[in-house]
Known about the structure:
This protein is mostly helical. It contains 14 helices and no strands. It has helices at residues 2-13, 19-26, 30-51, 54-58, 60-80, 84-113, 121-146, 153-171, 196-226, 233-253, 259-283, 287-314, 320-349, 351-380.
Amino acid sequence: MAFAFWITMAGTTAPTPLYPLYGETFGFTPFTVTVVFAVYALGVVLGLLLFGRLSDQVGRRPILLAATGLSVCAAIIFVFTENLAAMLVARVVSGLSAALVTGAATASLAERLGQHSRVKPATIALFANMGGLACGTLLAGILADVAPSPLRTPWVVMLALAAVGMLGVMADGESSAHRSGFSLQFQPLHIPGEIRSDFLRSAMAAGAGFAVLGVLTAVTGLFLGTVLHESSHSLTGLVVFIAFACTAFGQLLVRSLKPGTALPAACAGLIAAAALIAAAMATSTLAPLLVGAAVNGLATGVALGHGIGSITTRSAPQHRGASVSTFFAILYSMLAVPAVGVGVLIRATGLRPAGETFSAVVAALALGVLLSLIRTGKKAA
């Protein structure tokens, strides 16, 4: 189950180190790359809103079969893609696969392992989710560097691994004993009134970090190739791997922080990360980019863990599912929209000015949340 979760998420970030090659092959611009990336996030948001509760209604196994099947389909489309339209279709399919697998696999792991397992199901789900996002881009980058046909070999490998994951799900049984019956409708958005301020601050902080993750995923290859003149696809994969891996560790780190210090620490980390990424753009050096990706990942993970923790422990039980879906809908919207905005800025001003402007906006958003927390703390005192 964890492997099926991992490979489905890995397939969603596999295009990252390949974007420069796709740009050369199909002749599209950096703006087009950001749109291709944003389409994936749109697929995730629509999937969460439409199908977020589907595994509760019809069971985990059918939804996991659908998710892994969609991952296989996306890989097949990429293997044979010859134009931008096919890429867009593949990215939407990838987004839907991620939306379906996240809730169903997380719930299935919890049901299979139980509350008294030595390893917490949430920890396994975390590393399957973020580990997949991290490893997909690194694996694709390495394969693009060392294997023949760099635009097809990574997808052949992803296809084979996704097929193994799908076969594993097919061979496994259903883990859910209770099903409410199929009913297709939009998941209603819900911001819990009892923790509204904390919810919004956590969403804005984590959303700022997701915006950086989105931009790193979309344009790291462009920055390394055109500014640093580094043609290694593995290096592109490594930068994004660091960002997502540190996001996973940040979610573990939040467990050791006091609730009152987690979000301020995350905001401070986001500001520092934005400064490091801006420095990388201004000086055309790699080291600040690597450190900035790591710091942003840790800060994003802390903000994300704090937000989910608040929802699951302090909000009304009957609205928790809708609240979590709303939280992630905000995050994935922040993953997509700023990336497109950066694409527009790149077209208007160039890559480095766009990167510096984006970093300033992220820092301003994190600073706003931090000042809000300080002001609230003073009132409480």
